[in-house]
Amino acid sequence: MLKTMTIATCCVVSFATLAAADPLDAVRSGQVLLRRGSRGPTVAALQQALTQEGYPLSADGIFGIRTEAAVRAFQGSRGLSVDGVVGPATAGALGSGNTSTQPQPQPQPQPAPNPGTVGSTPGVTIPARPSSARAGSAVLASTNGMSLSQRGAVFEREILAGNVPNFERSFVTLTLRSGGSTLELKVCPDWLAVGHDRDFIRVPLDPRSAQRIADRFGCVLPTRPLVNAIWQQAALKLRPVTLTPGSQMQSNEWLRRNEAGNEAQRRVSPLGLLVSGLKKDVVLTNRLNSRPSKVAIYGWHRQSGSPWQPLSTVHGWSYVDYSHGIRLIARRAKLDGNPVDVDQLYARGDSRVSDEGPLSWRRYR
To answer: What is the secondary structure of 243-285 as a DSSP string?
Structure first.
């Protein structure tokens, strides 16, 4: 009788140990890789672990586009290689807590963030959003009938006053390696927008307005290599939404239509992921030394990775249309763990941030 009881007790302990095992241990040990198309309880465990890290997912056990986007965002936040594949390094960074695939209580909807919350990106000084600040659609509607310069002045004034969505206040890590050296930049996850998290508009700005905002917020504008790197490491590589060319390209209606198409793609994923493909970027280039009255635009990457818009300095500095966007890069970065000013890297011509050698045109004026 005693022997039987001992065996039963051992069995109970054994089954309890198995139940407590973390399915991600097989990934941490290198026995399993998870990627788009993977299915099963290990994927469900991954989804639960990502949810606990702040990337909410349904634990359905299917590694689809949303799971890949969350993986890429998590990898970027931890300075890992951003490839959307979960191997030992990514699984290890997720921790080793119990992620049992038994049904878990669904998280309750969280209240909207405090409109006055300021992100914690070091060196980036975006003012708190005023409680009276308008939604993005309301700001855009208020500019109906205005000239482009008047509209731009409204956008600039709203942004400088802090009317920026909360999700854009927490910049994400962009990791660039070269010759054994690692550069970690902080970039805005999306193009600069006005409004709040539930109603925002990515606004086109002329480069001088964009420069004033970047200066005030402790940021710089990007270069062509940085736009490419953002596309490569983006959690969400979305498709450019193109509209009929013509004079209407600068209108509010075309901006609304473009944003509707952009959000139709993006809204299936959480806010705050690094996004690419939706806008052409206003960039810095030495070409502007001989064309100081122009604006340089580049990007709008296709799914293949090739930019729809090659580097161009055709338009005058005051030209803006629905396809233009402003991406902010924090000036404060880390080079091999040590603080560095991105503007200094531009001036030195670090190959990770400049493909033109030392940049002498580092700000619009």
So the answer is: ---SGGGGSHHHHHHHHHHHHHHHTTS-TTS-EESS-EEE-B-
Domain count, the chain: 2
Indicate the average pLDDT of the chain: 85
| Whether 175 and 63 share a structural domain | no
Residue 4: left if φ>0, alpha if ψ -120 to 50, beta else—which one?
A: alpha
Look up tokens 């878990």; give the residue.
Answer: 104
Whichever domain contains 47, its CATH number is 1.10.101.10
The residue range of the domain holding 234 is: 136-348
Tokens for 39, please give them.
């299915």
Residues 6 or more apart in contact with residue 108 via CB below 8 angstroms: none
Asked whether the beta carbons of 181 and 286 are under 8 A apart, the reply is no
* 230 occurs within a structural domain: yes
Same domain, 74 and 142: no
User: 151 is written with which tokens?
Assistant: 């509209």
Residue pair 342/329 in contact (Cβ under 8 Å)? The answer is: yes
- 67 and 195 belong to one structural domain: no
Is 221 part of a structural domain of the chain? yes
- What is the rounded distance in angstroms from the CA atom of residue 224 to the CA atom of residue 234? 15
Model confidence pLDDT, tens digit, residues 137-166: 999 999 999 999 999 999 999 999 999 999
Task: Give the Cα separation of 190 and 210 in Å (integer).
Answer: 15
305 and 236 in a common domain: yes
pLDDT value at 67 more than 80: yes
